[in-house]
Design brief:
By secondary structure, this protein is an alpha+beta fold. It is 33% helix and 17% strand. Strands 3, 14, 15, 16, 17, 18, 21, 22, 23 and 24 form a ten-stranded antiparallel beta sheet that branches. The chain has a seven-stranded antiparallel beta sheet with strand order 2-6-7-8-13-10-11. Strands 1-4-5-9-12 form a five-stranded mixed beta sheet. A hairpin with a 2-residue loop joins β4 and β5 (425-428). α3 runs antiparallel to α4. The radius of gyration is 25 Å and the shape is globular. The N and C termini lie far apart (67 Å). The structure holds zinc ion.
Length: 645
């Protein structure tokens, strides 16, 4: 242990279960996965070159750092922004830490160091730290936890500090985090303050801080917060108890309800507490919620949370395309939850969902140039769309800016979500060109991955360093791939996945050995469960892990997007890989369609009898691009689902 309590030699990424944790798989360390290209590589490059600079600037302009300077007694002015304004800075710091670990940069080191100094000065002598409550409501500290976000902000500070320490960075941040965590332990564990934060998040963060420092009370506090929710202790924020997941104890709640991001962070914490305590009832209840939520409350894009009202999860099958909320933070929280379930169980279905979210709902949140972001990720937008005074296009920043720095912390740590080890197995979950370094059987091995994924389905691995003995390479066969072909050193081998969804290749590998996985990239039509009223009778297009969408700009001249329908017996045609202005590298898909023109009704837009107003149908070709690339050109209409004629 060092003076700050960090276990020496622990250089690793987000989520590092202790050696006693109940895990099926373990994450790799910082620098063990290097992504050199493909979509993940492009996103990391844009994140570094464009988004991070924007985020760092906003920490000053939007008030997060100035608020904390005021709390430190420096400068003049008033608190600006939301009561959770500090959390934006913490997420930005976490992003900077992972990014700096990936490739050091003086501006990132300076930002981390300067922010840490401000936080040291802003923190009270007793360890408390929250600029809003210190400046605006010092008499209400921990008195209105149902909406104060004090624990939520603390949690993001803990995650930033853990990232900084694991990435080998500034330890002053960790010292601030430890003092605040000790303060929480004193107030909520020792003195028995009964409150819980209305916004779950601190649970998973406390477990992470425990993992880093070995301070057991942090885990005990996380466990207490998880156990206490659902007993009416959160209080009434005015939005009801379901909104705050306080309607039922976590072991009894059967599905996701209320504010989507809170539910998903809570479940990440539930699984984290299971991993470190071994309380099986927590894993069981979380898996039960996962199964119901995925089966009935998840968009084709992997997005979760359908209601604008309360940013909440809707009823079962309430999944409208045009009114989809699908908050970007919900996608990120869902990745966190699924990653912990994957580590706990070793089941590829969680990696499948991570892939779907990353390539669709999450990827769509950022513009092709990395300078604009979606908070809300609908699956349809009409030409006359308005959200208040906004057109529903991506924006540079938001008054409530929870999403952009959250995007940056996930993109900068993307490599951590691609591979794991378990016993003598190296698992590869996500396919991206680059290198993987691991020690599945004690000896160091390295692999190079070459692939044009997800534009093509061929993934080639070369063993550069084979290690001493036998070990297994386990490759996820995505649920969407109807078939898979596999060769090892040019010889055909079976590609039937095991019960957990992986093909496991076990042998004494030699340097230079190659493995080639070929997934089925045939484009496919996807049909919704018929209880999803909003898209009943519609069809969508997918290819590989990508959901496709139709934008007005790509359609034939004179064809209105909202008149398109799939032609009977339609075939899908994949166009050659292309570089599209404003969008970047892409693969478009053409489909036989009908432009069904229906005149505007004279009165109400409804008709009696079996026939509607006369319609005309003209055969056309409709063109789709990957959903994540939408809204990078003229900002006109888009839709994922097309009606069947
Ligand atoms: Zn958000």
């Amino acid at each position: 242990m060092t003076t700050s309590g960090v276990r020496a030699g622990q250089i690793s990424g987000p989520v590092v279960p202790t050696s006693e944790a109940r895990v099926a798989q373990r994450p790799l360390g910082v620098g063990d996965v290097t992504i050199t290209g493909g979509l993940f590589g492009r996103w990391q490059r844009i994140n570094r070159e464009a988004s991070m600079a924007l985020g760092l600037r906003q920490m000053e302009e939007a008030g997060s750092l100035p608020n904390l300077r005021l709390a430190a007694g420096e400068g003049e002015g008033e608190f600006v922004g939301y009561r959770f304004q500090d959390s934006d800075l913490y997420k930005q710091l976490e992003a900077a830490a992972w990014e700096h670990a990936r490739e050091p940069a003086p501006e990132l080191a300076r930002f981390i160091a300067e922010s840490a100094e401000v936080l040291v000065r802003a923190q009270r002598a007793d360890g408390y730290l929250n600029s809003h409550y210190q400046l605006v409501k010092p008499d209400k500290i921990y008195a209105e936890l149902e909406y104060s976000h004090e624990h939520y902000c603390a949690g993001h500070l803990f995650q930033a500090a853990v990232a900084g320490a694991r990435a080998g960075g500034d330890e002053r941040l960790l010292a601030v985090a430890v003092r605040l965590a000790d303060h929480l332990v004193e107030v909520f564990l020792r003195q028995g303050h009964p409150g819980i934060d209305g916004h779950a998040e601190v649970e998973t963060a406390l477990v992470e801080l425990y993992r880093l420092t070995g301070t057991r009370p942090y885990l005990e506090l996380a466990e207490k917060f998880v156990n206490d929710r659902g007993h009416g202790l959160v209080g009434d924020s005015g939005l009801g108890v379901h909104y705050l997941q306080d309607h039922l104890p976590v072991r009894q709640a059967r599905t996701a309800v209320g504010h989507a991001v809170r539910q998903l962070y809570l479940d990440a914490g539930v699984v984290d507490v299971y991993l470190e305590t071994g309380d099986e009832s927590l894993l069981e209840c979380s898996i039960r919620r996962w199964e119901d939520t995925v089966a009935t409350k998840t968009y084709l894009t992997g997005g979760m949370g359908s209601r604008h009202s309360g940013e909440s999860v809707g009823d079962r099958y309430e999944l409208p395309s045009d009114r989809a909320y699908s908050e970007t933070c919900a996608s990120i929280a869902a990745v966190h939850w699924n990653w912990r379930l994957l580590l706990a169980t070793g089941h590829a279905r969680y990696a499948d969902l991570i892939e779907r979210i990353l390539h669709n709902a999450f990827a769509a949140s950022t513009s092709a140039d990395g300078t604009r972001f979606f908070y809300v990720n609908p699956l349809q937008r009409r030409d006359d769309h308005l959200e208040g005074d906004y057109l529903g296009r991506r924006r540079e920043w938001f008054a409530c800016a929870c999403c952009p720095p959250n995007i940056m912390r996930l993109v900068s740590s993307l490599g951590h979500y691609t591979a794991t080890t378990g016993q003598d197995v190296l698992y590869v979950h996500q396919y991206a060109p680059g290198t993987i370094r691991a020690e599945p059987a004690g000896d160091r091995i390295t692999l190079t991955t070459d692939t044009g994924y997800p534009w093509d389905g061929s993934v080639r691995f070369t063993v550069d360093q084979a290690g001493g003995g036998e070990w297994a390479l386990a490759l996820r066969i995505p649920g969407w791939s109807a078939s898979a072909r596999l060769t090892v050193a040019g010889e055909w081998v079976g590609a039937v996945p095991d019960e957990r969804g992986y093909v496991v290749l076990r042998r004494a590998w030699r340097e230079g050995d190659t493995v080639e996985l070929t997934l089925d990239m045939t484009p496919r039509l996807v049909y919704p469960h018929r209880r999803i009223d909003a898209v009943r009778g519609c069809v969508a297009v997918e290819r590989g892990p990508l959901v496709y969408c139709f934008e007005q700009i790509d359609q034939e001249r004179g064809v209105e997007l909202d008149d398109l329908a799939l032609a009977p017996g339609a075939t899908l045609r994949v166009l050659a890989e292309d570089e599209l202005k404003g969008v970047g590298r892409t693969v478009r898909i053409e489909v036989d369609a009908l432009a069904v023109a229906q005149p505007r009704a004279g009165g109400l837009p409804y008709f009696t009898g079996s026939s509607t107003e006369p319609v005309t149908a003209e055969r056309v070709t409709a063109t789709a691009i990957p959903y994540f690339q939408w809204d990078n050109r003229d900002g006109r209409a888009m839709r994922v689902w097309l009606p069947l004629t």
